[in-house]
Amino acid sequence: MLGAIGLDDVQESAYRVLVGLGAADVGDLAHRLEMPEDDTGLVLRRLEGHGLVARSSARPGRWVAAPPSVALSALLTRQRHQLDQAELAAAVLAAEFRAEATEPAVHDLIEVVTGTNAVAQRFLQLQFGAEREVCALVTDRPMAVTEGRLRGLP
Q: How many CB atoms lie within 10 A of CB 43?
């Protein structure tokens, strides 16, 4: 669930457990997560880098969860900013592409994409980028292409 803001499943699980406990030492958290203590310590340091946990100043060796409303809001704000910057960069690149195209009228009207994976990738990009709808002209047998199939999954 929190992968969109940069946490993997293990980090999210550790943070959730620590939020539930309020604070814990590495050994207790490792036991609850069923992970080795070294791995748990690494996960805690990564969470610390995200501002989600901190080392207890009152009790050395103990980790305290940052309040989710504050810590997660900060990560969400940072992610939104990064997405805004990426969107601006994409717009600049699109403008450069149109300006540098040898035949701009052709590039604005049609794009030729060859190869199964390239077609599937472009179709997914169109779907994810659509604001209202995606219309397609199919001249052969229609095929459903899922994101999992694109990535080589069954």
A: 25
